[in-house]
Hints:
By secondary structure, this protein is an alpha/beta fold. The protein has helices spanning 11-18, 39-49, 70-91, 123-135, 155-165, 182-194, 211-224, 257-263, 269-282, and strands at residues 2-6, 25-27, 53-56, 94-100, 140-144, 147-148, 169-172, 176-177, 180-181, 199-202, 209-210, 234-237. β1 (2-6), α1 (11-18) and β2 (25-27) form a beta-alpha-beta unit. α3 runs parallel beside α4 and α5 (155-165) crosses α7 (211-224). The longest helix is centred in the N-terminal third of the chain and has 22 residues, at 70-91.
Amino acid sequence: MKFLIAGAGGQLGRALQASVPAGASVVAPPESEFDITDAAQVTAVVAASGATHLVNAAAYTAVDKAETDLETCRRINVDAVGILAAAARTAGMGFVHVSTDFVFDGSASTPYAPDAPTSPLGAYGRTKRDGELAAGAQALIVRAAWVYAAAGNNFVHTMLRLMATRDALSVVADQIGTPTHAAGLARCLWTLAAAGATGTHHWTDAGAASWYDFAVAIQEEALARGLLSRAVPVTPIRTIDYPTPAQRPAYSVLDKTSTWAITGPARHWRDELRNCLDILASTR
């Protein structure tokens, strides 16, 4: 396999480059040379890559900003996906597209199956759902959730920064999902592509948590590794107490049963968090 990665500089793009299996390779052009909204440039890069798969690890992920920046969000999350999918089809390449738990409205009380009806609550979720449609029936679509990595802008880094600079934090405790280390998601994509999988699949780390649970675990594990010098109180609050421009699903745990039948089960999210913080600690 040879992956051509769109969004190579993002946290998932970097994770894909760090987990290349034996016998495989990557082409990882910078965004300045691979503008996914430019059809002519995409066609040229795809044709020159010699890749077997085009992986779209790029996305507009500013959930709240998307409510007022819909044109940009749609251009990246929908229109560009159609451009990439068309270029991959023309070149005879497999197309791998990463989506999100935000395509669901959160009204369920059991994990969402890959074929569960979608009903996104906000602009970001709607564009990601429409992006799945733009990817086409022959694409491999993998929905993930709460993705983070040792590098990049994500919840883990935000919590570490706030815990180091504030005397107390309040974190939402009534939104339930699953943290996902980008490293595990990258391994999943390599494995599914190697298996020739298509259609919609779900992948997150194992288990479930609230944002509050995740924050508490981040602090505990960071203290154990010397990434924080002191503990601060972390208070659980309700979503209604922390209003945001975009509505989030209250429950977005994904059913990974069919995916794990191909890839093997994921590690628990807390184990993956420890792995991520070990990486951070090793660089300090």
